[in-house]
From TrEMBL:
Assembly, per entry: Homodimer.
Source species taxonomy: Bacteria, Pseudomonadati, Pseudomonadota, Acidithiobacillia, Acidithiobacillales
GO MF entries: histidinol-phosphate transaminase activity; pyridoxal phosphate binding
UniProt cross-references to NCBIfam families, sorted A to Z: hisC
Name the UniProt record assigns to this protein: Histidinol-phosphate aminotransferase
Amino acid sequence: MNELWSDCIRSLEPYTPGEQPSIAGLIKLNTNENPYPPSPAVLSALQSMINADLRLYPDPEGCALKQAIAEMYGLRQANIFLGNGSDEVLAHAFHALLKHERPILFPDVTYGFYPVYCALYGIEFETIPLDDEFQVHIMDYIRPNGGIVLANPNAPTGIALSRSQLRILLEKCPTSVVVIDEAYVDFGAESAVSLVNDFPNLLVIQTVSKSRALAGLRAGFAIGNSDLIDALNIVKDCFNSYPLDRLALAGAEAAICDLSYFNATRQQVVNSREWLTMQLMDIGFSVLPSKANFLFVMHKLQPAQEIQHQLRQRNILVRHFPKPRVSNFLRISVGTAEQCEMLVHALREIIVSDTSEVTC
Ligand SMILES: Cc1ncc(COP(=O)(O)O)c(C=O)c1O
């Protein structure tokens, strides 16, 4: 261990992102990116920003992007916070709003970054087990706590809570900050944004990485009561006044404004998800009911890691989490219709050949 390191980081275990190999022809279904390109309006907005003004710092407030988000939701700029991807927004929310005397609560199976932020900022947490069907029961969270964090839809399960369930949770926990991570909400779940005016303790976090096909741009945002947003701004301005560069601000704004492209591409992803679900069930997979752009699946006979390995040999990447309760599952991002067909074709080969080996 390096004696030049600060003591506080010696025990940290960082989050491991899905791999991003640069291999030609790879079908990449391992990191929940959008299989479609960003809107053409985004590409032209980015091109128009490549000019001499790059010598200037960007707007530290990101007013134009905040205004576009505020208009989309009928809110005010004071209700919006911007960050370098929703991961950064989440990190600031943990830092600014979730360090209290009592432990915060989140599910035992959820986004792997939450315990990492807790370790980084010294926040106590308790995990609440999902039930046997991997569902969240909001009544389990109605107990003394230092805050509640729920991904909705949850990751990696893809299962979503309804807005009315979230309303009950907010009504029952008026003194807790409730963070709803809506990274995947646009693929068919109900957003909690419309509850923001009723609940000053609600912070909703969204991203342009998934439904707006801009994972490479790094822009995320939080929506909440202006008091919560003020706390996030204090942390941000103690950390980096310009988390979004000029290109990210312009590209994210163009993506938010191009509603028709957004609606068309997310519908294509939803259609492919439904098709893929039926196909995978036909091959013998159990598929959790997903409202996200990925499926969480387990095969009745073949071990998940073996299937992952065989897919990789055919240039198809999917994600496996070697963690309690989910180590026999694979998380498969929904690709284009063509990519989904290639995946199913490969899986039919793998499952048949493996089953015949078992029989012999
Ligand atoms: C549940 C969840 N929240 C947040 C994020 C972060 O997304 P980004 O930082 O790209 O906005 C991810 C990324 O995969 C995610 O799965």
